[in-house]
Write the structure tokens for this entry.
Amino acid sequence: MEKTAMFSLLLLLCISFHAAAGSIGVNYGRIANNLPSAVTVLKLLKSQGIDRIKIYDTDPTVLRALGGSGIKVNVHLPNELLYSAARRPSFAFTWVQRNVATYYPQTQIEAIAVGNEVFVDPHNTTKYLVPAMQNVHAALVKYNLDAKIKISSPVALSALQSSYPSSSGSFRSELIEPVFRPMLQFLRQTGSYLMVNAYPFFAYEANSDVISLDYALFRENPGVVDSGNGLRYYSLFDAQIDAVFAALSALKYDDIGIVVSETGWPSKGDRSEIGATVENAASYNGNLVRRILTGGGTPLRPKAELTVFLFALFNENKKPGPLSERNYGLFYPNEQKVYDIPFTLEGLKGYSSGGSKPDTGGRRVSVPVAGGGTVSKSAVGQSWCVASRGVGRDKLQAALDYACGEGGADCRQIQPGSTCYDPNTIEAHASYAFNSYYQKNSRAMGSCDFEGAAYVVSQPPRFGKCEFPTKY
């Protein structure tokens, strides 16, 4: 397990190390009778640096409160309106006029979720989904808003026929021709993306005997190799998202991106809801925020910039179902945090979620595949080891001395007059020595730790003109 200090001051390095960084939003659900006013919620959002939210309606009080705030908003046309929006273009036009055009651009509406998990809707609204999306888009065109506001529809992972291994990802066969192909074509034509609701908690809860909790919570673990493509996954979240990417690829829609419209972990649950604890919720959401804001994409799509909406802003006391449904909140209704996690890069400074593993991409390994062949090794997912400046000079110096001494790292290049002597800083020299040790040990798990003084990155470090090797 990586030590808790390993992430200190990652912000200072991730800007240069990671080419693709995502963004974090929060779902603002309101199925409760004890929530603060929209104006109070706005103050809470701003105090936490949350600049993107998704709501499940178009409540005027909320949209007016957000006006002029600079916070980006996703609004929702609910399932019960799909029939009318699909059958009557005039209804879609009026809906957009009253619920979108009236508030834009003062309220920065960036997307409309048309329906939500329609394929599991008991009212059987699936056949109205794509026509409704098309009519809502036509209304945006009339208001000249189509280039500014995207349209999509959140789908649950139950829309997949296969999701394990990730490389076998495919959509349910009965939905492909009537829904997915026309919807994906619509998303392509309008430059939009697929919204996906992904909950590793559900998979872990149902399979805790075979799924590692560390794997579900982004913590240090040996990873799981996909037998189809040889990629190694270190988190269930990445595996789930890549299953959707694989499903898109199977239909030749590799150009369609993904926004994770919901994900989260409950802080409390019924006795049968394994893993629903405050500690696990803090670990999942805290590690996920760090994972997304420091970039790196997924093993299958390493350059993807994911936008992820955490579920949810508040515990909602009127939600039906098991106890967990009322305990996904990041905040209690009195605005106190259920647990402490950051939401911004600035907030990540000095933050420790207790033993998470930095994303290192997907390293290909030699594994059996169908037909008896093998997947060869490649440079995909190379990684480097660098110093954590925030642990202090003394700790870095002690770790540097160990690496260059007993550890056997090749430190010749950081001696005076050598290629990597400049910049002559403890961070640069320690990073070079740590990386030498890490690579000499074949990037073995735990070889980039130095008692919390180092961590792994997936982009080449940059210290002056010094080049960090990937093998010795």
